[in-house]
Amino acid sequence: MNQKELNEIRRRFKLDKNSISKIFGCYVNSNKEIISWIDASMGLMQQEEQEMYLGLLKKALSGALGKNLVDITFSTAQVADSDEHRLLQTMRQTELKDPASREDFCRRLIDALNMGETNYLILLAADTYDVPHKSRDDEFQADAGDTVYRYFVCAVCPVKAPTLELRYDHDLNEFHPGSTGHIALAPELGFLYPAFDSRAANIYDLLFYAKNPAELHQEVIDALFRVEPPMSAAEQKNVFDTALTEALDQDCSYDVVQSVHEQIRAKIEDHKESHDPEPLELTVSDVGCILANSGVDTEKVEAFKANCEKQYGENAALNPVNIIESRKFQVTTPEVKISIAPENSYLIETRIIDGRKYLLIPADDGVEVNGIGVNIAADQPQE
Questions:
Q1: Which helix (H) or strand (E) holds 263?
Q2: Which InterPro entries does the record associate with it (predicted)?
Q3: Which site among 24, 82, 221, 347 is 20 to 30 Å from 52 CA-CA?
């Protein structure tokens, strides 16, 4: 799914935009016991309650593609004949109205998921979308298209335990103890099935959501979908950093790393300005060219590419947002941490003075110490 397709589905989670008739799921305690099943009609809810459910489901489609939202791809064999894909298709085709498939799914999820001491909600909702035509300038046209997209969304929401608070009683004009009650929080994980690719259903893919991109809940992906879990954003960065430092060895200098960071950041910014809905990707060869442009010799560039292909796989496409911090540039030593806007990273220089290594930063005007403006005196001549 690209960004435009994702945004189109996100807009469905409004009261007047969707055809969701029921909310299904269950409430689970920390011992993996189902406290209650959920089978609630949207039509019988107050508007505020409907909006709360829709808000939680929509958050299972939040975050960045390739980071919080990752593609899970089924093999042809799985789509042809597998328990895991058959279950998803049954849930989709019955619009979640088959109790047996819902219960089977929930119990598989509960068995795999570890939420520690936290209770949680499993929410499920099915929708049918008559996909409208789009003009060449991306404007929706009044007449409906001939594509119907049937899908469902799952959201797993932690439940906050009640706390005792002093609350004001308007009738008595006094404060009294009162409980907040159990509160459903934003989803920890979830997914959309099937994916909405080229504005149509793709039963070979689903879009998986993780609130924390460093923790994709790979045990859930393995148990429910039986596919090799993708690398998390943190794992992708660690592999990239390790491949770079091992291949460059002593040539992994500040200037090289700064140059690599700046070139990748420039590609990210250019992609944003282009408004291209497709996620930006870099091949290992693309990064190899960036290293060569940064002055790294050919032998070490090839060593880097070989290391990356070994870890990421051949012909792998890297998500640049996951391999660099495009919004910050940070230099650390055991004693000091320096953070600077990425576009100003060129201001930091490395020098060796009297045999010691230094990081130099211009400090002409506007220098503050704990919020106090200070002047840096020029060197005084020695008498």
A1: helix 254-274
A2: DUF4317
A3: 221
